[in-house]
Amino acid sequence: MQTLRKMAAELMVGVLTVSMLFLFSTPLSAQKQENPDVTKLLADARDKAAELSRDADEMEALIRTDVSWQTHAEMLESVKEHINQLGRVAAQLEQKRDSASQWQQQAIDRMLPVLKELAANTTVAINHLNENKTRPLQISSYPQYLKENAEAAHNLADMISSFVNYGDSRAKVEKLEQKLEIASR
Question: Is the pLDDT confidence value at 58 over 60?
């Protein structure tokens, strides 16, 4: 199952990369150049989103186990910390947005709403746990928040990773064009 999921994700990255290359068919010289600082921050965001995604999976797995509310609280704290770390990177990206290339701006614009959704769901889950320490899983909304967080975390990690892969692919194409002295469209 994991292999199929991985293969599907890799296929989506490939399709997204090719689609984005056609989407941005404006000559490279007419577009704003990539900001290397934004590129580094996006790579950092990708890594932090991957950590968050793993945490969200572990958090969701707790639904199927009989662990204490303290274990839930510890995992929620870890999720919250990764969201906060990603939020700090997102704040830096927002500050550099105007100096970013078009695709970098799109990456920033698309990741922020998902990150806000994750933060809101996590806050609700923490509040729910604080109010229902003796029976967190007996209230149907709590597991739903955890499932929604895991899904949003996966979407965020996949999206940021796809944008970083696109940037890498685009840089390779530009390097090849220069090497072969091919004029941009």
Answer: yes
